């Protein structure tokens, strides 16, 4: 017994450093990526956001950029508007995506199922820009839908369907749908059919089975789908700019304006950080409300 | 027991396209009995059970529960509950919530639900399990919770879909006795489907043997074992030695069968069908019906001697299994392998392979069935004896 332990002990001291080096090498690309592309720029952004330009190449520490955000109603309103719109878009995506996912995962079988799944996927082979322009072709004043309505005699003149909050919402939901459907399908796939049957067998109605069995089971998938969709929507730049028009200000547009139009990197950095805090806070609250942990959602 | 029927099936048919899974099955189950449906996998027993539960609509025929036709009644409105093969306990709820699920759907007041849950947990002897997570329970405990979850709803019929399949042997033996006991106490009608003949024989009041969508025979376990009506039942229920041959002559209800391998065995017809000379038949003899003696006289093939079927052979394998020990004896003349039970007295405990034995059994112990050509039936034939 003791000899066995001794040999295993020496083996341990031989293999563990090797293992450590191997693990380290394997982790290296990830660590480099995290450090160079995420941590380092953010640290730089943080320092930039916390300084004030006094003169040419003359800076001082200041909270002025953050104060400006809270005192200027336009920024503050855009900020709240972006958050609310993103939450609404996430909810709509969930409400549409859940039945679709349930149908794909549970109702339909075999080839048709793969076909349906592919049909959800295929639009995403095209770039987001092209997809958004597709919507513009459909919805603009001289577009397909407007022309059709005129041809059918339902309206007298051309109708402008672009540049409203509703259009923006349609665009955001469309862009996010896949990121909701994929986690939901995979989590619903793992739901044993006999659980649903047992629910019916014990006298459950469709509604009670959905509420007590299907949704609790799907909760990790719902949470991870919602987080991804929410983050993507909140940080979306293209769709709000192209479909929302001038009235539908999005917070990312504000950041873009600070950096590019006004060359105000200090203020832009501060806005960027505020957006980061906003999204983290909302995700945190969402997880608490749904009693999920972040670890559950990546299972 | 009165004559009231809890469950009745009338000429039930279910086909999927060209394939008929359940073919014209009729059954009547009296109140409070333990009824098993026994059959090999793919015989249609699960389809039948799912029709009773309401997950599948029959193609033809009627299901009547407590005098009410169940056609078009969805599963959540039927007075039957099912214990699923893999139990299907809800992992998102604890034990008490699992059991309360059905009661809550009936909108009972919370106090009554709590009382019923506590009562049924007591009944399955897990009184403190209520707050436990389903995953914390052992296999046998989950089994009991799954049954409790159905029983608490006081169904007219409890359907069980091979719920013991996932348990290990020791626990399965234990649960068999426990289930029978439980059924006896609560008095609910149980319909149990299984491919394990021992489960069916031990627990049931009545067993239906099912094959290729049809009921081969319905009867008490003793009836099935001692008076199988078809070759399939004779081969499937219990172990049997099997010979095939052709009837030579009929004499006072005894059929003299000359075997395909050579030799002659006398037997009686296994069912009502009267055998005639020239019929092809299958002969079945139970291993425990064969009397063995040590014998060193010259080897003889199967023949009749003093009104007893007799053959001699060499012991090939000894299969020691306590009270259920057997020997495989090779008939040297024909090469046919015969399995015999060793007496439980231990008289042959010193038997060695290579010894010569004389086997004999009464004419009434060999049951002959007219064989359907081409149909292969299980049994202790040459290929299955090992």
Automatic annotation (TrEMBL), chain B:
Question: Which GO BP terms sit in this record?
Answer: putrescine transport
Q: Which UniProt keywords apply?
A: ATP-binding, Nucleotide-binding, Transport
What are the protein's GO molecular function terms? ATP binding; ATP hydrolysis activity; transmembrane transporter activity
- Pfam family of this protein, just one? TOBE_2
Reply yes or no: does the keyword ATP-binding apply. Answer: yes
A GO cellular component annotation here is: ATP-binding cassette (ABC) transporter complex
Protein name as annotated: Spermidine/putrescine ABC transporter ATP-binding protein
